[in-house]
Specification:
41% helix; binds pyridoxal-5'-phosphate; alpha/beta
Length: 490
């Protein structure tokens, strides 16, 4: 029987259980929780690839969340991966030409964040019960567009919780913004900030370590937790679809069980690809994980040179959920390679103080790739000609993969992880295919995209332009703390 405990990447967070780590979100020392030792799965690959999504989810979750009972986990899973998804398969692998895509956008908010955020509220409320938490849980979230809506959907009207989402006012797509501002639910609060995603994320991290704030909310019966991918309750459910995708490749005879494959992942905060790395550590036969960046290619440069340098222009691209210069989950990867939390603490201090650090990357599991804006658009156009329309984020990965394959000659079968429905980014996708749509209203483009893609618009955006706006607040970054006090009435 596994008993997986969690420690902070910076060493001063103590050793805690999975449910405690989920409740806390981030360690008080500013580090991220990681498993103290990597668990092993109870079943072998041939057994795993026969399973459906829910069964597989249980096999993965149970070895990481060892203080949850079987019944608790199965309940959480049953209530998450259900008809909220528009396909029974939950996460289908599709093939177009010689390319494979793992579609992770069949949930309620049509982005891959639903894969983890449909289960996180269940894990969190179960964790609260287990730990006899009587406080109301306040979810603080910074979003580059997709996490916000998926977290809002997950936590809206969940008893014992409130959620505050901060998003960069000028850094999300029209559909993303509209989805968030029209969110219903008494316990939800959505605030635009005058800054970029890094400002929002740093602002939220600062709130988490503000001891005076923490004390005050504690006295008033509240505690903070996080719905960002810094929470292991989000990271671990993402491991599941890597195994599941592999199983589909075996079932469709594209590979034999045991063969290695590659995954190319459009990356921002490094959460998705880190889950792929965890899958490999659990024994999934993965050759390379290709980490694809847009023009904010801080990660590409890091994997090329070992130098992480965020001192550069922050570029607003057509793939806003990847417009990130401080990639939080990279800290976990470095910790797993290095194993010395003193070193990690030093590196992270250097990142805060100087905006850069160097690190000797001893693993070849992850390799960088990137696509410029122009390359991203032409990738969308190319693939549309072959009969498949992808969103801008997926296009970054697709093009990143094509460049990687050309440069290296690697012929290992590759799955492009497809992180959003093209319907979430209609202006960029439609005008990539035909420039004449450049000025068309984003909501009118829904019909155009249906024509272009021959795929019906998902439920998530039906009537979105007519929905009532419930959230109108915009604030400066230094007002985030006051916003929290106001929302909690303290
Ligand atoms: C969040 C997101 C990403 C980046 O994922 P990370 O886990 O932050 O690396 C990529 N594409 C889309 C559509 C997203 O919503």
């Amino acid at each position: 029987m596994n008993n997986t405990k969690y420690v902070s990447t910076r060493g001063n967070g103590g050793t805690i259980t999975a449910s405690e780590a989920i409740l806390k979100g981030i360690s008080p020392d500013g580090g991220l929780y990681v498993p103290e030792e990597f668990p092993k799965l109870d079943k072998n690959l041939d057994e795993l690839i026969k399973m459906n999504y829910q069964e597989l989810a249980y096999e993965v979750l149970k070895v990481f969340l060892t203080d949850f009972t079987e019944e608790e986990l199965k309940n959480c899973i049953r209530n998450s991966y259900d008809e909220k998804f528009d396909t029974d398969v939950i996460a289908p692998v599709v093939k177009h030409g010689d390319y494979f895509f793992l579609e992770l956008f069949h949930g309620k908010t049509i982005a891959f964040k639903d894969m983890a955020l449909s289960i996180l509220p269940h894990l969190l409320t179960t964790a609260a019960k287990k730990n006899k938490v009587s406080k109301e849980i306040v979810i603080l979230t910074a979003t580059s567009g997709d996490t916000g809506k998926a977290a809002l959907e997950g936590f809206a009207n969940v008893k014992g919780t409130k959620i505050i989402v901060f998003f960069p006012e000028d850094g999300v797509s029209p559909v993303q913004k509209r989805q968030m501002l029209t969110q219903e639910g008494e316990n939800t609060h959505v605030v635009g900030i005058k800054g970029n995603f890094d400002d929002a994320q740093t602002g939220v991290k600062t709130l988490f370590s503000d001891s005076q704030l923490l004390e005050t909310i504690d006295e008033n019966g509240f505690m903070f937790s996080s719905a960002n991918s810094i929470n292991i309750g989000r990271l671990i459910p993402q491991i599941v679809y890597y195994f599941y995708a592999y199983g589909q490749m075996v079932k469709s005879s594209e590979i034999n069980s045991g063969d290695v494959i590659n995954f190319t992942v459009p990356t921002g905060n490094f959460g998705n690809i880190l889950a792929g790395y965890y899958a490999k550590k659990l024994g999934l036969p993965v050759n390379k994980l290709i980490c694809a960046s847009n023009d904010n290619k801080v990660l590409y440069d890091f994997f090329e040179t070992g130098k992480y340098n965020r001192n550069r222009e922050f570029i607003l691209t057509a793939s806003p959920s990847m417009d990130i210069l401080i990639s939080s989950n990279l800290e976990r990867f470095l910790y797993h390679l290095d194993g010395d939390y003193n070193n990690i603490r030093e590196i992270m201090n250097s990142l805060t103080e100087k905006g850069e650090y160097s690190f000797e990357i001893t693993s070849k599991d992850i390799i960088g790739a990137y696509a410029s804006e122009e390359e991203t658009f032409s990738a969308i156009r190319d693939l549309h000609e072959k009969g498949y329309v992808i969103d801008t984020h997926t296009a970054v990965a697709f093009e990143g993969y094509r460049k990687y394959a050309k440069e290296t000659g690697d012929t290992t079968k590759n799955i492009v992880v497809s992180t959003a429905s093209p319907y979430k980014f209609t202006p960029e996708v439609c005008s990539a295919i035909d420039n004449k749509y450049k000025e068309t209203d984003p909501f009118e483009l829904i019909n155009v995209l249906e024509e272009l893609s021959k795929v019906k618009p998902p439920e998530a955006i039906n009537g979105l332009d007519k929905k009532e706006i419930h959230h109108k607040l915009i604030c400066e970054v230094d007002k985030m703390k006051q916003i929290v006090y106001d929302f909690l009435n303290i």
